[in-house]
Amino acid sequence: MMEHQDRLRSIADRLDRFAEVETDKLAEVVGAEGACMVAMTEPEPPVLTGEAVTDRNLAERVCSGCQFQTACLELELRWSGPYQVGVFGALPDEDRRDLYPIWRARRAEQWGGDR
What we know:
The chain is mostly helical. The chain has helices at about 1-15, 25-35, 35-40, 50-65, 70-80, 95-110, and strands at about 85-90, 90. It contains 6 helices and 2 strands; from the N terminus they run αααααββα. The longest helix is centred in the last third of the chain and has 19 residues, at about 95-110.
């Protein structure tokens, strides 16, 4: 359990660099340049099956090479808060739900609240 919490704190550390970035700017960049968005515009986009494990594996593969993973994760935490489904920033929803209170506390402590 401690390893999981340490991993989540490490992820939160990486997200700190986006604290001052406006949500609209994050959405613009992730929407235009994110690997998942680019993949969906290809002639043969990845096919989601509706099965959680299969779709999670597909999403994690798409995310693995994306240079906007952390921006995507920051955006998802802002938009969805603790109510998350799917894979964003290469993290499944369970991990993002665990990360959310750590992320939110950091925003409140370091920058006076999340943005």
